[in-house]
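Subject: mismatched residue count in predicted assembly?

I count 577 residues in my input, but I want to confirm that the predicted structure covers every chain. Input:
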Amino acid sequence: METIKEHAHSKILEALLADKNITVEDALENEMILNMGPQHPATHGVLRLLLRLDGETIVSCVPELGYLHRGYEKMAENMTYYEFIPHTDRLDYLAPLSNNVAWVLAVEKLTGIEAPPRAQYIRMLICELSRIASHLVAIGALAMDVGALTVFLWTLREREKILDIWDILCGARFTTSYTRIGGVANDIQPEAIAKAEWFINQFDDNLTECEYLLNNNRIFIGRLEGVGVVSGEDAVQLGLTGPTLRGSGIAYDLRRDMPYLFYNDLDFNVITHNEGDCLARYFVRVDECRESAKMVKQIMSKMPKGNILTNSPKKVLPDKVEIYSKMEELIHDFMIVNFGINPPEGEIYSAIENPKGELGFYLVSKGEGHPWKCKIRAPSMVNCQGLPHMIKGRMVSDVVAIVGSIDPVMGEADK
Amino acid sequence: MEIKELLTSKLKENLPGIQFTTVEYRGEISLILNKKDIVKFCRFLKEDSDLAFNFCEDVTAIDWARRNQRYTVVYHIFSMKNKFRLRLKCDVEEDDCNIDSISSVWKTADWEERETYDMYGIHFNNHPDLRRMFMPEEFEFYPLRKDFPLMGIPGSLPLPKK
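Triage response: the counts match. Full output below for your records.
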């Protein structure tokens, strides 16, 4: 037995030596391809990165998307405008309420109706609270990616409190589907307002506590400072939006530049940091949390009384009590549910400033109950396009920090 | 109002050979132009210092199914200087299903055009890396075309063998 093995071994060796195509070289002289993801805890979902390595330095990087592609654009073309609201929860699943608002604003623009002021204030409130919730996950996950595990637990504890507000507000913590075309599903409860008030009052101290753990942490700073630098000019050219763009010193924020809802009436600053590295993006997020908390206070003090649904019987679902007691409302409800709201023929693009960046919906109507075309401009997808630029020339361990700092959500990027 | 007038006068003055029509709906402006002019047009819009459309938000297409010119490629561009959004539209025929890539003007358009190619099968000439964005490379169909059924095509994606 032994001899046969040895014999075979020498035969293989002979064959290998005879093969002139094989050259024996130092392994470290060669480039290596490393496949990072799609199943990798640090890529925040199913993002796949193909890295070409020279030693441990990354020569080039190719992101591959599509592992979570569910065809939402195709589905939107085959359902009514109302039916698509629950699906927007599943786009950026860290800020579902923000997506709900983005969708109904687009449909309202296409239809030509406007929600009453109280509904718009409620929408602003939930947008800002979900911005805080999303940024908290981003900060915590970034810290965890570079080794500071405690912060993740602390920021998620804060986020839980916001989810509790959602629980009171719409009965769900995660898949909210709270907005309606022409308003919101139900008026905001006094308990939800009280809870939000309590949250905002204690939030600042808790965020400061998290900052104590990070801002003077040598490992945290060392892993993020000067990593993944993208200049302002490059960031605009690459189409980055949200904290990723503002971390490069470009003060572009749709809340200020193309105001929607009542953001005109609020007093807030657009946060920018000029360094353009991962640390700057982290600072932008922390400061934006504070800014959003400030805005929530303003919104709650300014919130007007009044209706939460606009009066437009052919476009807006009537109240359940009225459906059961009035003929007209019953007919309208039947028509809206079965045939949709039939916006006039035309096309619109409507975008809002989501936690991740600019979330836009491009809708084309042919006067039917379902959209002829729906395009989702997902911020995470476009931000991922900046990855090769940021990663090139860095080490493998920096990839984790860079992906964490742009905070992609693959549900949105893959549609 | 000012920026709209500036836009038309600038375009008429600097690009006299290019024909376009302007449509306004719900306060948004669309320019409809011929597909052969798109790169020149975009480059001017970006590089002109007064207009400065420095930011490309979105590239997509519409399938009109039964229309003579079946597809329309749609671009949304934004000027951070003027805080103004503009939509450009080019019709593309089914037999001659291609358009020049604008990824040399705005780098964002790279992935957006790949996605449009993936979903509609519109070929972007001179694109640096025209591969499928979401669907697998060997997939033969274009899912957002109107003749692609909602339930998918059985057997179009390879499944694990028994």
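The domain at 70-413 of chain A is CATH 1.10.645.10 (Cytochrome-c3 Hydrogenase; chain B). Marking this ticket as 'not a bug'.
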